Amino acid sequence: MTNESAISTVPLALVVHRTCKPNRLIRNLADRLRAQVYHRTCPEHQEKMKIFCQTDRQLICVVCRDGHTHRGHACVPISEAAAVSKGELGKALGFLSKDNGALAGLISEQDGEMRKIKEKSTRLKANISARFRELQNFLQKREQELQAEVVKEEKRALLPMQANQAAMTQRLNPRLEKESALLSGLDIDESDNFQQWWLDHGSPIVGELKNRASGTGEISGQHTVGEFRSEAEDLRVTPDTPCSLTLGPYESHLQLFVWKEMLKVVRPVPDCVTVEDNDDPVLKVSRDGLGVRHVDVRPSRMWAWGRDPQYSMSHTWSGEGFGAGQHYWEVTVGEKLHWSLGVEADPHGDRESVCRLNGRFGKHRVQTQREVPLDLGTQPRVVGTYLDCDRKRVEFYDADHVKLIASATYDTDKPLFAYFNPGFYLQGENADPLALRPY
Predict the structure, then answer these.
(1) Number of C-alpha atoms within 13 angstroms, CB side, residue 306?
(2) What does the record give under GO molecular function (predicted)?
(3) Which helix (H) or strand (E) element contains residue 398?
(4) pTM passes above 0.85
(5) What is the pLDDT of the chain when averaged over all its residues?
(6) Residue where a domain stops, chosen among 25, 42, 73
(7) Beta strands at 293-297 and 434-436: parallel, antiparallel or unpaired
């Protein structure tokens, strides 16, 4: 057996044991580190660290305390320092637990608010779908009704034409038979055969096609005796006149008239606000049987009272206040140069202006605690006011274009009243009324 094979048969562990010798230096270092970790032994003096230096916030041994590095420092036993630290730890844990609980509560509360938003969103989407289904059902039904109306009108318009066509057909059919019979004579070549056919068939048919003498003269109809008589001459085509088939304005303004009909299914409609007559001598509140309310300045009264028409203004409010729910009304301002609309609280007591939209010579401002200028580009002809009492919010819209003009929130719990101010009279240049648009 060679030396190599002999070595290969020796167990590896035995080889390692024979070749690797322990390193005392490494062992001592490991023991020292182990002692430092588990027994808190001073790395410099190999003494157990029993003292805490408060100045340097460091664990030290007795030798370190008396040495130059920590001499004169505030030092306490480790047990005493640990007791203080444990107290601080307890306070921190108590605070952290309480604060974490508060945060967890806020997160849960926020989750609840988010859930409310999601539920509200679900309700809004369902409501939108339901409202659109109502409009779609109305439009679909109205489309079917108008289609049926067209079919009915078509039948009515075609009836006299069909009768006239039937009369023409009744005359045409026998004459087509005569034409076919006469055409057959052209195929007879022999003169004797043709003449016999003519006597038997051709001549009687031709005789029937000619005018015959009447009992009083030689004229029958418009032609003399012996001329061919036309069956088409006294017939006329029934024309398609402009009124033969029509749906009236539904033919040219279908969408407009259907839109007006849609108001029957639109719910809710804008509020029909009742304007209070406050007996102002320069202000007139008009009402008619349709429930239209409008405010109108009476210049004669204004002059009679001696007021300066450049600066005199009067205003009024709705007769009823709004304290809950959502409300919307529309006011036509037209081309007025100066006006003011909005909502106010307690108009008969300490008047409290909540929110107004002011139009002044082409410039517009929204007024809450202060006036804020608005850049609208064009003046709205109809202003819609949306009052959401549940959310305490006021919004103004360009009603013709369904465009938001301005919005504001308020904090009063008092009922709110619609506010109307027709503005300066301006020597008659701004005398047009503010008119509530009825629905």
Answers:
(1) 0
(2) zinc ion binding
(3) strand 393-398
(4) no
(5) 82
(6) 73
(7) antiparallel
